[in-house]
Protein backbone atom coordinates (compact mmCIF):
# COMPACT_ATOMS: atom_id res chain seq x y z
CA UNK A 1 0.00 0.00 0.00
CA UNK A 2 1.53 3.32 -0.95
CA UNK A 3 1.54 6.46 1.17
CA UNK A 4 -1.01 8.24 -0.99
CA UNK A 5 -3.54 5.46 -0.55
CA UNK A 6 -3.12 5.43 3.22
CA UNK A 7 -3.70 9.18 3.40
CA UNK A 8 -6.82 8.79 1.30
CA UNK A 9 -8.24 6.11 3.57
CA UNK A 10 -7.41 8.13 6.68
CA UNK A 11 -9.17 11.15 5.22
CA UNK A 12 -12.19 9.06 4.34
CA UNK A 13 -12.37 7.68 7.90
CA UNK A 14 -12.15 11.20 9.36
CA UNK A 15 -14.91 12.34 7.01
CA UNK A 16 -17.22 9.46 7.91
CA UNK A 17 -16.70 10.01 11.64
CA UNK A 18 -17.30 13.74 11.22
CA UNK A 19 -20.51 13.11 9.26
CA UNK A 20 -21.76 10.61 11.82
CA UNK A 21 -21.12 13.01 14.70
CA UNK A 22 -22.59 16.01 12.98
CA UNK A 23 -25.70 14.24 11.70
CA UNK A 24 -28.95 15.32 13.28
CA UNK A 25 -31.53 12.64 13.94
CA UNK A 26 -34.92 13.66 12.61
CA UNK A 27 -38.00 12.06 14.09
CA UNK A 28 -40.25 10.19 11.72
CA UNK A 29 -43.11 12.37 10.56
CA UNK A 30 -41.27 15.64 11.12
CA UNK A 31 -39.18 15.49 7.93
CA UNK A 32 -41.49 18.07 6.35
CA UNK A 33 -40.22 20.76 8.73
CA UNK A 34 -36.78 20.34 7.20
CA UNK A 35 -37.50 19.50 3.56
CA UNK A 36 -40.64 21.56 3.10
CA UNK A 37 -42.40 18.42 1.86
CA UNK A 38 -45.49 17.79 3.89
CA UNK A 39 -47.22 14.41 3.92
CA UNK A 40 -50.21 14.54 1.58
CA UNK A 41 -53.62 14.91 3.16
CA UNK A 42 -56.44 14.80 0.64
CA UNK A 43 -59.00 16.29 3.01
CA UNK A 44 -56.89 19.29 3.84
CA UNK A 45 -56.45 19.75 0.13
CA UNK A 46 -60.14 19.68 -0.75
CA UNK A 47 -61.81 21.44 2.18
CA UNK A 48 -60.52 24.82 1.16
CA UNK A 49 -61.49 24.17 -2.46
CA UNK A 50 -65.07 23.07 -1.94
CA UNK A 51 -66.79 26.45 -2.40
CA UNK A 52 -64.81 27.27 -5.54
CA UNK A 53 -65.58 23.80 -6.93
CA UNK A 54 -69.33 24.24 -6.34
CA UNK A 55 -69.40 27.72 -7.83
CA UNK A 56 -67.43 26.62 -10.89
CA UNK A 57 -69.70 23.62 -11.55
CA UNK A 58 -72.85 25.69 -10.90
CA UNK A 59 -71.60 28.43 -13.19
CA UNK A 60 -71.03 26.19 -16.18
CA UNK A 61 -73.81 23.63 -15.62
CA UNK A 62 -75.90 22.86 -18.70
CA UNK A 63 -79.51 21.68 -18.64
CA UNK A 64 -79.21 17.90 -18.81
CA UNK A 65 -82.48 17.46 -20.71
CA UNK A 66 -81.09 19.51 -23.59
CA UNK A 67 -77.82 17.56 -23.90
CA UNK A 68 -77.04 14.72 -26.30
CA UNK A 69 -76.49 11.73 -23.98
CA UNK A 70 -73.52 10.54 -26.06
CA UNK A 71 -71.76 13.84 -25.31
CA UNK A 72 -72.15 13.58 -21.51
CA UNK A 73 -69.11 12.85 -19.34
CA UNK A 74 -66.80 12.09 -17.90
CA UNK A 75 -67.32 15.02 -15.56
CA UNK A 76 -69.84 17.17 -17.44
CA UNK A 77 -71.31 19.97 -15.29
CA UNK A 78 -75.11 19.64 -15.45
CA UNK A 79 -78.31 20.88 -13.90
CA UNK A 80 -81.42 18.75 -13.71
CA UNK A 81 -84.94 19.77 -12.69
CA UNK A 82 -87.65 17.15 -12.54
CA UNK A 83 -89.71 14.64 -10.61
CA UNK A 84 -88.26 11.81 -8.52
CA UNK A 85 -89.72 8.58 -9.88
CA UNK A 86 -87.85 6.18 -7.63
CA UNK A 87 -85.65 5.96 -4.53
CA UNK A 88 -83.23 3.00 -4.56
CA UNK A 89 -81.21 1.77 -1.57
CA UNK A 90 -78.45 -0.83 -1.98
CA UNK A 91 -75.60 -2.28 0.10
CA UNK A 92 -77.51 -1.99 3.35
CA UNK A 93 -78.33 1.68 2.84
CA UNK A 94 -74.79 2.71 1.92
CA UNK A 95 -75.46 3.13 -1.76
CA UNK A 96 -78.60 5.19 -2.24
CA UNK A 97 -79.81 6.92 -5.37
CA UNK A 98 -82.86 8.48 -6.97
CA UNK A 99 -84.13 8.34 -10.54
CA UNK A 100 -85.21 11.75 -11.84
CA UNK A 101 -87.42 12.41 -14.87
CA UNK A 102 -86.48 15.87 -16.16
CA UNK A 103 -89.32 18.31 -16.89
CA UNK A 104 -90.41 18.18 -20.51
CA UNK A 105 -87.96 15.35 -21.34
CA UNK A 106 -89.06 12.94 -24.04
CA UNK A 107 -85.84 10.96 -24.67
CA UNK A 108 -85.11 7.40 -23.52
CA UNK A 109 -82.15 8.05 -21.20
CA UNK A 110 -82.41 7.23 -17.48
CA UNK A 111 -81.05 9.81 -15.04
CA UNK A 112 -79.77 8.51 -11.71
CA UNK A 113 -78.51 10.83 -8.97
CA UNK A 114 -76.10 9.28 -6.44
CA UNK A 115 -76.96 9.97 -2.80
CA UNK A 116 -74.16 8.06 -1.05
CA UNK A 117 -73.01 7.64 1.51
CA UNK A 118 -70.61 5.79 -0.83
CA UNK A 119 -70.13 7.45 -4.20
CA UNK A 120 -68.72 5.95 -7.39
CA UNK A 121 -66.46 7.68 -9.84
CA UNK A 122 -64.47 10.88 -10.15
CA UNK A 123 -66.98 13.09 -11.99
CA UNK A 124 -66.95 15.98 -9.53
CA UNK A 125 -63.15 16.10 -9.63
CA UNK A 126 -63.16 15.87 -13.41
CA UNK A 127 -65.75 18.63 -13.81
CA UNK A 128 -63.69 21.23 -11.93
CA UNK A 129 -60.48 23.06 -12.78
CA UNK A 130 -59.69 24.47 -9.33
CA UNK A 131 -57.03 21.74 -9.11
CA UNK A 132 -55.55 19.56 -11.81
CA UNK A 133 -53.36 16.46 -11.99
CA UNK A 134 -50.28 18.68 -12.24
CA UNK A 135 -50.99 20.00 -8.72
CA UNK A 136 -50.45 16.51 -7.27
CA UNK A 137 -47.37 14.35 -6.93
CA UNK A 138 -48.85 11.20 -8.43
CA UNK A 139 -51.94 9.31 -9.58
CA UNK A 140 -52.81 8.08 -6.10
CA UNK A 141 -53.02 11.58 -4.65
CA UNK A 142 -55.06 12.72 -7.64
CA UNK A 143 -57.49 9.87 -7.02
CA UNK A 144 -57.61 10.63 -3.28
CA UNK A 145 -58.59 14.17 -4.19
CA UNK A 146 -61.62 12.83 -6.10
CA UNK A 147 -62.60 10.81 -3.07
CA UNK A 148 -62.13 13.76 -0.75
CA UNK A 149 -64.45 15.88 -2.89
CA UNK A 150 -67.02 13.07 -2.78
CA UNK A 151 -66.91 12.88 1.02
CA UNK A 152 -67.19 16.62 1.17
CA UNK A 153 -70.36 16.65 -0.91
CA UNK A 154 -71.85 13.88 1.21
CA UNK A 155 -71.10 15.75 4.41
CA UNK A 156 -72.18 19.21 3.25
CA UNK A 157 -74.86 18.56 0.63
CA UNK A 158 -76.48 15.13 0.81
CA UNK A 159 -76.33 13.82 4.40
CA UNK A 160 -78.00 16.91 5.99
CA UNK A 161 -81.10 16.32 3.81
CA UNK A 162 -81.58 12.77 5.22
CA UNK A 163 -83.32 11.70 2.02
CA UNK A 164 -85.42 8.52 2.12
CA UNK A 165 -88.25 6.98 0.08
CA UNK A 166 -90.45 9.93 1.08
CA UNK A 167 -88.75 11.87 -1.73
CA UNK A 168 -90.60 9.89 -4.39
CA UNK A 169 -92.97 12.07 -6.41
CA UNK A 170 -91.36 15.34 -5.28
CA UNK A 171 -89.82 17.92 -7.57
CA UNK A 172 -86.06 18.39 -7.22
CA UNK A 173 -83.51 20.75 -8.63
CA UNK A 174 -79.97 19.42 -8.73
CA UNK A 175 -76.60 20.67 -9.91
CA UNK A 176 -73.79 18.19 -10.30
CA UNK A 177 -71.28 16.37 -12.47
CA UNK A 178 -72.38 13.62 -14.84
CA UNK A 179 -71.12 10.73 -16.90
CA UNK A 180 -72.99 8.32 -19.15
CA UNK A 181 -72.77 4.65 -20.03
CA UNK A 182 -75.08 3.90 -22.94
CA UNK A 183 -78.46 5.37 -22.01
CA UNK A 184 -77.71 5.44 -18.29
CA UNK A 185 -76.64 8.83 -16.99
CA UNK A 186 -75.23 9.11 -13.46
CA UNK A 187 -75.15 12.48 -11.72
CA UNK A 188 -73.07 13.19 -8.62
CA UNK A 189 -74.69 16.20 -6.91
CA UNK A 190 -72.95 19.31 -5.57
CA UNK A 191 -76.27 21.12 -4.78
CA UNK A 192 -79.77 19.75 -4.15
CA UNK A 193 -83.05 21.65 -3.68
CA UNK A 194 -86.22 19.70 -2.82
CA UNK A 195 -89.38 21.65 -3.60
CA UNK B 1 -32.89 -2.38 -73.58
CA UNK B 2 -36.45 -2.46 -72.40
CA UNK B 3 -35.34 -4.56 -69.45
CA UNK B 4 -32.61 -2.09 -68.47
CA UNK B 5 -35.12 0.71 -68.72
CA UNK B 6 -37.52 -0.97 -66.36
CA UNK B 7 -34.74 -1.80 -63.91
CA UNK B 8 -33.62 1.82 -63.90
CA UNK B 9 -37.19 2.97 -63.46
CA UNK B 10 -37.67 0.52 -60.59
CA UNK B 11 -34.46 1.78 -58.96
CA UNK B 12 -35.55 5.38 -59.28
CA UNK B 13 -38.90 4.49 -57.78
CA UNK B 14 -37.35 2.66 -54.84
CA UNK B 15 -34.89 5.49 -54.20
CA UNK B 16 -37.58 8.15 -54.33
CA UNK B 17 -39.73 6.10 -51.97
CA UNK B 18 -36.80 5.77 -49.57
CA UNK B 19 -36.18 9.50 -49.78
CA UNK B 20 -39.86 10.15 -49.13
CA UNK B 21 -39.97 7.76 -46.20
CA UNK B 22 -37.18 9.53 -44.39
CA UNK B 23 -38.07 13.04 -45.57
CA UNK B 24 -38.98 14.07 -42.03
CA UNK B 25 -36.18 12.14 -40.28
CA UNK B 26 -35.86 9.03 -38.14
CA UNK B 27 -38.01 8.24 -35.10
CA UNK B 28 -36.83 5.59 -32.66
CA UNK B 29 -39.46 3.54 -30.83
CA UNK B 30 -37.87 1.76 -27.86
CA UNK B 31 -40.00 -0.56 -25.71
CA UNK B 32 -39.76 -3.55 -23.35
CA UNK B 33 -39.87 -7.05 -24.84
CA UNK B 34 -42.46 -7.55 -27.57
CA UNK B 35 -43.10 -11.09 -26.31
CA UNK B 36 -45.68 -9.30 -24.13
CA UNK B 37 -48.55 -8.28 -26.46
CA UNK B 38 -48.97 -5.02 -24.53
CA UNK B 39 -45.51 -3.80 -25.57
CA UNK B 40 -45.82 -5.31 -29.03
CA UNK B 41 -48.87 -3.07 -29.52
CA UNK B 42 -46.68 0.00 -28.90
CA UNK B 43 -44.46 -0.92 -31.86
CA UNK B 44 -47.29 -2.21 -34.04
CA UNK B 45 -49.28 0.99 -33.60
CA UNK B 46 -46.41 3.48 -33.44
CA UNK B 47 -44.54 2.42 -36.58
CA UNK B 48 -47.31 2.84 -39.19
CA UNK B 49 -48.56 5.99 -37.47
CA UNK B 50 -45.13 7.67 -37.70
CA UNK B 51 -44.52 6.39 -41.23
CA UNK B 52 -47.82 7.87 -42.36
CA UNK B 53 -46.57 11.24 -41.08
CA UNK B 54 -43.43 10.87 -43.24
CA UNK B 55 -40.86 9.51 -40.80
CA UNK B 56 -38.53 6.56 -41.03
CA UNK B 57 -39.07 4.35 -37.95
CA UNK B 58 -36.65 2.11 -36.10
CA UNK B 59 -38.21 -0.18 -33.48
CA UNK B 60 -36.24 -1.99 -30.78
CA UNK B 61 -36.66 -3.64 -27.37
CA UNK B 62 -34.49 -2.97 -24.31
CA UNK B 63 -35.89 -6.04 -22.48
CA UNK B 64 -36.10 -3.99 -19.26
CA UNK B 65 -32.33 -3.58 -19.15
CA UNK B 66 -31.25 0.02 -18.53
CA UNK B 67 -27.76 -0.54 -20.02
CA UNK B 68 -29.26 -1.88 -23.26
CA UNK B 69 -31.66 1.04 -23.27
CA UNK B 70 -28.78 3.50 -22.91
CA UNK B 71 -26.99 1.94 -25.93
CA UNK B 72 -30.18 2.34 -27.94
CA UNK B 73 -30.48 5.99 -26.95
CA UNK B 74 -26.81 6.48 -27.97
CA UNK B 75 -27.54 4.82 -31.32
CA UNK B 76 -30.44 7.23 -31.81
CA UNK B 77 -28.16 10.16 -30.99
CA UNK B 78 -25.52 8.95 -33.51
CA UNK B 79 -28.27 8.42 -36.05
CA UNK B 80 -29.43 12.04 -35.54
CA UNK B 81 -32.93 10.82 -34.80
CA UNK B 82 -35.59 13.55 -34.73
CA UNK B 83 -37.41 11.98 -31.77
CA UNK B 84 -37.39 9.01 -29.40
CA UNK B 85 -40.62 7.35 -28.24
CA UNK B 86 -39.84 5.15 -25.24
CA UNK B 87 -41.55 2.85 -22.75
CA UNK B 88 -38.64 2.98 -20.33
CA UNK B 89 -36.67 0.40 -18.37
CA UNK B 90 -37.06 1.87 -14.89
CA UNK B 91 -38.16 5.15 -13.30
CA UNK B 92 -34.70 5.96 -11.90
CA UNK B 93 -32.46 3.89 -14.17
CA UNK B 94 -33.75 5.62 -17.31
CA UNK B 95 -33.04 9.20 -16.27
CA UNK B 96 -29.46 9.08 -17.59
CA UNK B 97 -30.51 7.95 -21.06
CA UNK B 98 -33.29 10.53 -21.34
CA UNK B 99 -30.94 13.28 -20.16
CA UNK B 100 -28.33 12.26 -22.73
CA UNK B 101 -30.85 12.51 -25.56
CA UNK B 102 -32.17 15.82 -24.23
CA UNK B 103 -28.62 17.22 -24.05
CA UNK B 104 -28.09 16.13 -27.66
CA UNK B 105 -31.22 18.04 -28.65
CA UNK B 106 -33.32 14.96 -29.34
CA UNK B 107 -36.84 15.21 -27.91
CA UNK B 108 -37.99 12.20 -25.86
CA UNK B 109 -41.65 11.24 -25.49
CA UNK B 110 -42.24 8.67 -22.74
CA UNK B 111 -45.21 6.34 -22.87
CA UNK B 112 -46.78 3.93 -20.34
CA UNK B 113 -44.20 4.39 -17.57
CA UNK B 114 -43.06 7.59 -15.88
CA UNK B 115 -39.54 8.53 -14.83
CA UNK B 116 -38.79 10.17 -11.49
CA UNK B 117 -37.66 13.45 -12.99
CA UNK B 118 -39.54 16.25 -14.70
CA UNK B 119 -38.21 18.61 -17.36
CA UNK B 120 -36.11 16.07 -19.27
CA UNK B 121 -38.72 14.41 -21.48
CA UNK B 122 -41.05 16.51 -23.61
CA UNK B 123 -43.95 14.32 -22.52
CA UNK B 124 -44.75 11.50 -20.10
CA UNK B 125 -48.03 9.95 -21.22
CA UNK B 126 -49.33 7.19 -18.94
CA UNK B 127 -52.53 5.28 -18.31
CA UNK B 128 -54.44 6.46 -15.24
CA UNK B 129 -53.92 3.30 -13.18
CA UNK B 130 -55.54 4.80 -10.10
CA UNK B 131 -58.73 5.68 -11.94
CA UNK B 132 -58.73 2.35 -13.82
CA UNK B 133 -58.35 0.30 -10.64
CA UNK B 134 -61.12 2.26 -8.90
CA UNK B 135 -63.42 1.96 -11.93
CA UNK B 136 -63.15 -1.83 -12.21
CA UNK B 137 -63.31 -2.23 -8.41
CA UNK B 138 -66.73 -0.49 -8.55
CA UNK B 139 -67.94 -3.10 -11.03
CA UNK B 140 -66.54 -5.90 -8.92
CA UNK B 141 -68.23 -4.61 -5.74
CA UNK B 142 -71.55 -4.63 -7.63
CA UNK B 143 -70.89 -8.15 -8.94
CA UNK B 144 -70.17 -9.28 -5.36
CA UNK B 145 -73.50 -7.72 -4.38
CA UNK B 146 -71.54 -5.64 -1.83
CA UNK B 147 -70.66 -8.58 0.44
CA UNK B 148 -68.47 -11.64 0.95
CA UNK B 149 -64.92 -12.80 1.56
CA UNK B 150 -62.21 -12.38 -1.03
CA UNK B 151 -58.50 -12.71 -1.82
CA UNK B 152 -56.05 -10.37 -3.52
CA UNK B 153 -53.14 -11.22 -5.82
CA UNK B 154 -50.59 -8.40 -5.79
CA UNK B 155 -48.06 -7.67 -8.53
CA UNK B 156 -44.31 -7.28 -8.13
CA UNK B 157 -44.01 -5.39 -4.86
CA UNK B 158 -41.04 -3.30 -6.03
CA UNK B 159 -43.17 -1.88 -8.85
CA UNK B 160 -45.01 1.42 -8.23
CA UNK B 161 -48.03 0.26 -10.20
CA UNK B 162 -48.48 -2.70 -7.84
CA UNK B 163 -49.26 -0.27 -5.01
CA UNK B 164 -51.18 2.27 -7.08
CA UNK B 165 -53.55 -0.48 -8.24
CA UNK B 166 -53.93 -2.21 -4.88
CA UNK B 167 -54.42 1.08 -3.01
CA UNK B 168 -57.14 2.15 -5.41
CA UNK B 169 -58.91 -1.22 -5.33
CA UNK B 170 -59.05 -0.89 -1.57
CA UNK B 171 -60.09 2.78 -1.70
CA UNK B 172 -63.34 1.52 -3.21
CA UNK B 173 -63.74 -1.89 -1.56
CA UNK B 174 -62.81 -0.96 2.01
CA UNK B 175 -65.78 1.38 2.23
CA UNK B 176 -67.95 -1.72 2.60
CA UNK B 177 -67.42 -3.44 5.94
CA UNK B 178 -69.41 -6.33 4.49
CA UNK B 179 -66.48 -7.20 2.17
CA UNK B 180 -63.63 -8.96 3.96
CA UNK B 181 -60.18 -9.78 2.59
CA UNK B 182 -58.98 -13.13 3.97
CA UNK B 183 -55.79 -13.59 1.91
CA UNK B 184 -53.34 -11.25 0.18
CA UNK B 185 -50.29 -12.59 -1.63
CA UNK B 186 -47.92 -11.47 -4.37
CA UNK B 187 -47.94 -13.46 -7.61
CA UNK B 188 -45.36 -11.10 -9.18
CA UNK B 189 -47.48 -10.22 -12.25
CA UNK B 190 -47.01 -13.86 -13.33
CA UNK B 191 -49.61 -16.24 -14.76
CA UNK B 192 -48.21 -19.50 -13.37
CA UNK B 193 -47.81 -17.95 -9.92
CA UNK B 194 -51.32 -16.57 -10.21
CA UNK B 195 -52.57 -20.09 -10.88
CA UNK B 196 -50.60 -21.72 -8.06
CA UNK B 197 -51.37 -19.09 -5.41
CA UNK B 198 -55.06 -19.29 -6.26
CA UNK B 199 -55.03 -23.08 -6.00
CA UNK B 200 -53.53 -22.80 -2.50
CA UNK B 201 -55.88 -19.99 -1.44
CA UNK B 202 -58.92 -22.01 -2.56
CA UNK B 203 -57.74 -24.91 -0.39
CA UNK B 204 -57.19 -22.77 2.64
CA UNK B 205 -60.16 -20.40 2.23
CA UNK B 206 -62.87 -22.22 0.29
CA UNK B 207 -65.36 -19.62 1.57
CA UNK B 208 -64.08 -16.86 -0.73
CA UNK B 209 -66.33 -15.64 -3.54
CA UNK B 210 -64.01 -13.10 -5.14
CA UNK B 211 -60.39 -12.51 -6.21
CA UNK B 212 -58.96 -9.11 -7.16
CA UNK B 213 -55.74 -9.17 -9.21
CA UNK B 214 -53.19 -6.45 -9.98
CA UNK B 215 -52.99 -7.35 -13.66
CA UNK B 216 -54.66 -9.51 -16.29
CA UNK B 217 -51.84 -12.04 -16.46
CA UNK B 218 -52.36 -13.02 -12.81
CA UNK B 219 -56.14 -12.75 -13.22
CA UNK B 220 -56.02 -15.24 -16.11
CA UNK B 221 -53.97 -17.65 -13.97
CA UNK B 222 -56.46 -17.24 -11.11
CA UNK B 223 -59.42 -17.76 -13.45
CA UNK B 224 -57.95 -20.96 -14.86
CA UNK B 225 -57.31 -22.27 -11.31
CA UNK B 226 -60.95 -21.55 -10.38
CA UNK B 227 -62.20 -23.30 -13.53
CA UNK B 228 -60.00 -26.33 -12.78
CA UNK B 229 -61.27 -26.40 -9.18
CA UNK B 230 -64.87 -26.27 -10.41
CA UNK B 231 -65.43 -22.88 -8.77
CA UNK B 232 -67.48 -20.91 -11.28
CA UNK B 233 -68.95 -18.73 -8.50
CA UNK B 234 -65.80 -16.69 -7.94
CA UNK B 235 -65.82 -13.08 -9.13
CA UNK B 236 -62.43 -12.12 -10.60
CA UNK B 237 -61.02 -8.84 -11.89
CA UNK B 238 -57.70 -7.85 -13.43
CA UNK B 239 -56.22 -4.76 -15.04
CA UNK B 240 -54.62 -4.23 -18.52
CA UNK B 241 -57.32 -5.13 -21.05
CA UNK B 242 -55.58 -8.10 -22.69
CA UNK B 243 -57.35 -10.25 -25.30
CA UNK B 244 -56.92 -13.31 -23.06
CA UNK B 245 -58.81 -11.59 -20.24
CA UNK B 246 -61.41 -10.39 -22.76
CA UNK B 247 -62.03 -14.02 -23.78
CA UNK B 248 -62.65 -15.01 -20.13
CA UNK B 249 -64.97 -12.02 -19.66
CA UNK B 250 -66.96 -13.05 -22.74
CA UNK B 251 -67.30 -16.56 -21.29
CA UNK B 252 -68.50 -15.15 -17.97
CA UNK B 253 -65.42 -16.54 -16.16
CA UNK B 254 -64.10 -13.09 -15.24
CA UNK B 255 -66.08 -10.02 -14.13
CA UNK B 256 -63.88 -7.49 -15.85
CA UNK B 257 -60.64 -5.63 -16.40
CA UNK B 258 -59.57 -2.02 -16.89
CA UNK B 259 -58.13 -1.31 -20.31
CA UNK B 260 -54.96 0.73 -20.41
CA UNK B 261 -55.40 2.38 -23.79
CA UNK B 262 -51.81 1.79 -24.89
CA UNK B 263 -52.63 2.09 -28.61
CA UNK B 264 -54.19 5.53 -28.01
CA UNK B 265 -51.29 6.53 -25.75
CA UNK B 266 -48.75 5.57 -28.43
CA UNK B 267 -50.62 7.46 -31.15
CA UNK B 268 -50.83 10.54 -28.92
CA UNK B 269 -47.05 10.39 -28.33
CA UNK B 270 -46.36 10.23 -32.08
CA UNK B 271 -48.74 13.16 -32.72
CA UNK B 272 -47.06 15.23 -30.01
CA UNK B 273 -43.61 14.35 -31.38
CA UNK B 274 -44.75 15.35 -34.87
CA UNK B 275 -46.13 18.70 -33.65
CA UNK B 276 -42.86 19.38 -31.84
CA UNK B 277 -40.64 18.41 -34.79
CA UNK B 278 -42.62 20.31 -37.40
CA UNK B 279 -43.84 23.37 -35.45
CA UNK B 280 -41.85 23.38 -32.21
CA UNK B 281 -45.15 23.01 -30.29
CA UNK B 282 -44.80 21.47 -26.84
CA UNK B 283 -47.63 19.54 -25.17
CA UNK B 284 -49.49 21.68 -22.61
CA UNK B 285 -48.38 19.42 -19.76
CA UNK B 286 -45.40 17.09 -19.61
CA UNK B 287 -47.24 14.55 -17.45
CA UNK B 288 -50.44 13.40 -19.10
CA UNK B 289 -52.92 10.83 -17.87
CA UNK B 290 -55.01 8.83 -20.32
CA UNK B 291 -58.11 7.34 -18.63
CA UNK B 292 -58.59 3.56 -18.47
CA UNK B 293 -61.84 2.01 -19.66
CA UNK B 294 -63.67 -0.43 -17.36
CA UNK B 295 -64.40 -3.54 -19.41
CA UNK B 296 -67.19 -5.96 -18.42
CA UNK B 297 -69.46 -8.39 -20.26
CA UNK B 298 -71.50 -5.33 -21.35
CA UNK B 299 -68.80 -3.75 -23.50
CA UNK B 300 -66.13 -6.44 -23.96
CA UNK B 301 -67.10 -6.87 -27.63
CA UNK B 302 -65.65 -3.44 -28.33
CA UNK B 303 -62.19 -4.46 -27.07
CA UNK B 304 -59.52 -5.98 -29.29
CA UNK B 305 -55.71 -5.75 -29.25
CA UNK B 306 -55.77 -3.02 -26.56
CA UNK B 307 -58.05 -0.85 -28.68
CA UNK B 308 -61.50 0.12 -27.41
CA UNK B 309 -63.70 1.08 -30.34
CA UNK B 310 -65.92 3.71 -28.74
CA UNK B 311 -69.42 3.80 -27.36
Task: Characterise the protein shown here.
- The complex is a heterodimer of chains A (195) and B (311).
- With 195 residues, chain A is an alpha/beta fold.
- Chain A has 6 helices and 6 strands, in the order ααααββββααββ.
- In chain A, strands 2-3-4-6-5 form a 5-stranded mixed barrel.
- With 311 residues, chain B is an alpha/beta fold.
- Chain B has 2 domains: 2-121, Response regulator (Rossmann fold), CATH 3.40.50.2300; 129-259, Response regulator (Rossmann fold).
- Chain B is built from 10 helices and 14 strands.
- Classes of the chains: A alpha/beta (195), B alpha/beta (311).
- Chain A binds chain B through residues 70, 74, 90-92, 94-95, 118, 120-122, 133-134, 138-140, 142-144, 147, 181-182, and chain B through 126, 128-131, 134-135, 138, 146, 163-164, 167-168, 171-172, 175-176, 178, 285, 287, 289, 291, 298, 311.
Topology, element by element:
The complex is a heterodimer of chains A (195) and B (311).
Chain A: H1 3-22, H2 31-35, H3 42-47, H4 50-60, E1 62-63, E2 76-90, E3 95-102, E4 110-117, H5 123-127, H6 139-158, E5 171-181, E6 184-194
Chain B: H1 2-21, E1 26-31, H2 37-52, E2 56-61, H3 66-78, E3 83-86, H4 95-103, E4 108-111, E5 123-127, H5 129-143, E6 148-154, H6 160-173, E7 179-186, H7 191-204, E8 210-213, H8 216-228, E9 235-237, H9 243-250, E10 256-259, H10 262-279, E11 287-290, E12 293-296, E13 303-304, E14 307-308
Parallel strand pairs in B: 1-2, 1-3, 3-4, 4-5, 5-11, 6-7, 6-8, 8-9
Antiparallel strand pairs in B: 10-12, 13-14
